[in-house]
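Structural biology now treats backbone shape like a language. To illustrate, our science desk offers a sequence and the tokens encoding its fold:
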Amino acid sequence: MKFHELEVKDIENKNISLSKYKGCALLIVNVASKCGFTPQYESLEALYQEYKNEGFMVLAFPSNQFLSQEPDSNEDIRLFCQSKYNISFDMFAKIDVNGDNADPLFTFLKEQKSGIFGTNTIKWNFTKFLVDREGNVIKRYSPSTKPKEIEEEIKIVLAK
């Protein structure tokens, strides 16, 4: 399976083919509204605003797998992100990122770029994956990596 052949569900539970993002550089993030890293939404939105006209997109996938830090419905998540952080990048339906019910997108991402010590498991909310315009997974970032710290690598991917 290739990246652009995968399908996901958006925050309104509509099927979306990732082929929609062909030609875009992507930062894919598993997110949660009640996490210590939740304020990263602000800098994710700032990066998106800075580079969206160059073909950059942030894709946010809520997950409740880490200490139940995303317990709300898709609609409540959407409202929270819009009202608190004015999020305008693409949000998706709540998913599992680990285990037997892991979304195929995150299974793919983990297979392409393992975590520290070669583990495939997502360790926490706000793990980030940088994907180039052709759908190649370039790098995986830890939850503690601030979005601003990824900016130079985003510029390199956008320049290609």
Q: What stands out?
A: The chain has four helices and seven strands.
